[in-house]
Predict the structure.
Amino acid sequence: MLQDGRDADASQYIWKRSPLVPPPIAVTDREEVERVLTGPAFASDFEDRFYDVFGIPSATEGIKAASQRAFRGEVSEYFAGKTRELINEKSFGSVGGPRKQIDIIKDVINRIPTHWLSCASDVKLPTDIDLADVGRYVFMETASTQALSLNNFRYIYLNDDPASDWHLCLSAQKLVDRVRVQNPSSTALAVQFVAATIPTAPYFSKALAHIVDYYLSDDKLKERNEITKLAKERGSVMTYIKRALGHYPVVSGLFKTAVEDKVIGIKVLSAQRVYANIVEAYMNVCRRWNETVDSVDKFAGEHVV
């Protein structure tokens, strides 16, 4: 028997026996991975989780409008200017020489989205949330303040650990409730802005970090010079971005669930969880071409999974 006052807790559990489902499988062939990631026969948990946290569908017009407002204006110019500002502010001299150093990930890449978010809207966020946490990828909660990292929103996109599912969902809901409290006169607009921007911010930072890390290697001097030249000429560097993320993706793979029996090279049963291994699919293409990973620029630049 549940004690008095625990009815709210009891309602958060599912008391019916879970249906039997086939064991999960992984796919590593590029064509199979693409079918899982893009095909209508495979569904993501994203929409349900998004609704669990924000109480509105992701396709809500208000969220689209909030995203458009956030990205209005000269966003690229803001990011470029803020990058220069942070580099100048955070650089420090080395002992015995004129050269300066900087922790480019911690002091620049992880902070750019947080500065932009603070300028893109008048939405007030809870004061005990450190916006710098937006670039970190490990869930944090301190016992003293119960301060929640923005990283709680990983429940929506990349929560593949059943043991953390409920905990992360409640934490994300708690953060959204606190945003509502902080913005009593514009609750709906505040939630829409948070939903449109913050859950994806850590992955934006991670993508930037991967791109920078890829081109800072010693064997990428030629590419760095080409990127610098294109940037000065205001040319497009998207081919280089795709190439880096092809070699070094933001996520190594994704789980999706089959909504029907499907043959994608292998047979997948309805309700079966499928892990689309993006990294291994890329490596398999490289092996198929009998090339080293670093030399397969055509695939990486034009056919990123």
